[in-house]
Amino acid sequence: MRILRVVAILFVVGVAAGVGLFAYYAKDAPTVSATDLKASGGPVVYDKDNKEITKLGTAQTYVQSAKIPQTLKDAVVSIEDRRFYSEKFGVDPIRIAGAAVNNVLGRSNGMQGGSTLTQQLIKLAVFSTKASDQTLRRKAQEAWLAYKINKQYSKAQILEYYINKVYMDNGQYGMETAAEYYYDKPLSKLTLPQLALLAGMPQSPVTYDPYTNPEAATTRRNEVINAMLRDKKITSADAATAKSTAITLGLVKQQKAQQATNATDKIIDPYLVQVIAEVKKKLQVNPYTTSMKIYTNLDMSAQTRLYDIVNSNKYVTFTNNKMQEAVTMTDPNTGAVLAQSGGRKLGNVRLGFNRATRNTRSNGSTMKPLMDYGPAIEYLNYPTSERLSDAPYKYPGTNTSLYNWDKTYMGNITMRKALVQSRNIPAIKTLEKVTIPKSLEFLKGLGINLPQDEQVYASGIGASVSTEKEAAAYGAFANGGTYYKPYYVRKVVTDDGQTTKFDSTGSRAMKSSTAYMITDMLKGVFTAGTGTSAAISGIYEAGKTGTTNYSDAELAANPALNGVGIAKDAWFTGYTTHRVISIWTGYDKATTAGLNYSEQTISQQIYKQLMSYVIQQDGLTNTDWTKPSSVVATTINGTRELYVRGYAPTITREAKSSSSSRSSSTTSSKSSSRASSSTSSSVSSSSQPVQSSSSSAESSEPGTPAASSSSPQQGGRE
């Protein structure tokens, strides 16, 4: 008796504790309104100013209970919750116990879990369907809300809400909407096997998609039919006929891409593609199946202007509608992607191919600061005045000659001039000094990991880098040396109030001296280099052009591409202290058409138009970069040059020989005159690890790089 008494007491205590815990959890349950239950479960997407910009999924067609076929109602109840109509509290203890036993024994007949239809509706309305979120607290709140909903609404209303709210894959919410998508018919016109498929899909919409997984879809449909037969909703003959029907019967041709439903959808499409991908990766959920609010970094004003720039001739004139582009704009101080274009003249395609992230075309000479000169300053302490030889040269270890874009040579020039004038030979010679392994290490710190076949010297003047990756990499130059991985989403808030933040954590990619010296040289690209078409008057900015040429095989396939100055791709990546914009232009089918001289400046024009707009629209300050104490400025041959403190360049000047100038011999005098003319301006500069003097010349005003008589880029790879 004593043992029974103890057991009874423990039982009562356990029940009391359970009730108390349930009550404790239930008191914090969120409220659920009719609007929550009726609204589409698609996530709402917001811009950087917290303004709603779109909802995921297509426009929903809501169907009232009276117009839902009884066959569909029977199918849903049989497969999801056979005791639905007899449940008095919105939960089913028998189902819960059965599911628990099956979970322990590892059994599943693929038909019913522990949640009732009412509980599933609650999940769709206010909770995440993510497996890891099915905690004791969540289950208690779910059961409490199901009880309240069951008391407040009729069974017919609850079933109506459920049928209209479930996700059906391919951006479709609700079974009426799905019927129109998959069969181009309303629910009232569908057959038993078609309705059975729709009833079974909500358990795993992607798995049971009849287009991509017809076998799994058939299996699931037949499970629904068997459940209906078990519950005596159909006859054996009906079941046999339905199960023998091909899953493809009546299916319309799949829409390869969803159609944009309004102007905003077209404008934000490439950005939205990345938002969805980022949410999936971070939360490990399909955003289409979870009710949530997605707060992005999208600058809607800039995105709209960018769309107009590339899709009209109001700001930039494109030669034809086949010419393509990709643009990414970021905040270099956070890594936030603020605007993006993945192509132009794309029609009403939704969630289409995004060239800004998936294009693998070479970035040409925009790679030089990243792979050649940045590492040279970082690891070899090169000054901007480092003397580089622009002379005939072959790629290391080969007999393959490397040429500049203009097929000429400038002789010994400074690193500054080599970069501003985009000379290829000095760039690869610099890379040879740096070594490939060290350069790859530098690139990795900037979020760029070249594939094995591109870990070669030729990549120093162009490799497969997207505008998204390039904008992020150049962001480290803009902010003083910190790399931020580009990101699109700020935070996600589920309907139960759970918040997940997506901020990018910065990592030191280079010394501040490297970032400042590269930026200082790239300023000259706008004033005396290859990027004068991008220059914005009065703005502190830095940037780099890039073009690529055609291979011999491509030229052989289309000799028309061998014309003077025809380029395969044209890039421009420019930045201020507040924004980075990276642009690619070219043709998807590059062997059918190339870019002439004029078209090669379109990327620069896009930069100029977009950067000018955001500076004014967002009220960005025009701020110059601050020289770090680790960098020393000096004047060499009238040009402001920089070096890393402690590694001052060695400068020698050959003066005229006084004895030569006094020579009475005409021949000697002429000879001396020629010698002095050629040597008086000669400067030798190389970095040496010496202690810099406090008397080193410091310039408070940036100097202008020496002008060159060379013309801007003219096709080929530069």
UniProtKB/TrEMBL annotation:
The UniProt record lists the keyword Transport: no
InterPro entries reported for this sequence: Beta-lactam/transpept-like, Glyco_trans_51, Glycosyltr_51/Transpeptidase, Lysozyme-like_dom_sf, PBP_transglycosylase, PCN-bd_Tpept
Lineage, top ranks: Bacteria, Bacillati, Bacillota, Bacilli, Lactobacillales
GO terms for biological process, alphabetical: cell wall organization; peptidoglycan biosynthetic process; proteolysis; regulation of cell shape
Biased composition (Low complexity): 657-718
Start and end residues of each Penicillin-binding protein transpeptidase domain: 326-611
PANTHER family: BINDING PROTEIN TRANSPEPTIDASE, PUTATIVE-RELATED, PENICILLIN-BINDING PROTEIN 1A
Reactions it catalyzes: Preferential cleavage: (Ac)2-L-Lys-D-Ala-|-D-Ala. Also transpeptidation of peptidyl-alanyl moieties that are N-acyl substituents of D-alanine; [GlcNAc-(1->4)-Mur2Ac(oyl-L-Ala-gamma-D-Glu-L-Lys-D-Ala-D-Ala)](n)-di-trans,octa-cis-undecaprenyl diphosphate + beta-D-GlcNAc-(1->4)-Mur2Ac(oyl-L-Ala-gamma-D-Glu-L-Lys-D-Ala-D-Ala)-di-trans,octa-cis-undecaprenyl diphosphate = [GlcNAc-(1->4)-Mur2Ac(oyl-L-Ala-gamma-D-Glu-L-Lys-D-Ala-D-Ala)](n+1)-di-trans,octa-cis-undecaprenyl diphosphate + di-trans,octa-cis-undecaprenyl diphosphate + H(+)
Region (Disordered): 652-718
Protein name stated in the entry: Peptidoglycan glycosyltransferase
A GO cellular-component term linked to this record: outer membrane-bounded periplasmic space
Transmembrane segments: 7-26
Gene3D superfamilies with a match to the protein in the record: Biosynthetic peptidoglycan transglycosylase-like, DD-peptidase/beta-lactamase superfamily
Keywords noted in UniProt: Carboxypeptidase, Cell shape, Cell wall biogenesis/degradation, Glycosyltransferase, Hydrolase, Membrane, Multifunctional enzyme, Peptidoglycan synthesis, Protease, Transferase, Transmembrane, Transmembrane helix
Family matches, as Pfam families: Transgly, Transpeptidase
